Amino acid sequence: MEINNNKESQHCGTKPKRIAFGIAPLGIVSIGIVPMGVISIGVVPMGVFSFGAVAMGIVNLSVVGMGIISAGITTMGVWEYSPKSQNQSHNHSKQIPNSSKKNSISDIFKTREEAEKAASKYGCIGAHKMGNKWMPCKIH
Fold it and tell me: Which residue stretches of the chain have pLDDT < 70?
């Protein structure tokens, strides 16, 4: 394995490349571990278009995605798709306290204990505070 100590090859403080591969590559198209660029593909990609295990950007296709448009298993964004979300966007104003809707976490409880009991029906554990009420699951 060749190690290049040239400052040009290091990502911090250097000009982004058109195509960058490796650990923490910075480029227009970045592929690797923690890639940062316009199109990022990898383990923890961050960019406008992100594809990977944990993606953070404008458009994400991943296992855990956080951005404006997110698709994957666990997603957080303005528009999100995941097997559990069933194309419902995250909107608190539509949540109905103690509703019986399936696959939509809309239950809001007065106590943490009530929310923790309800968490199992959503396939999660714990509870989190929402204003002065409680919702199922550790993470929103």
Answer: 1-14, 84-106
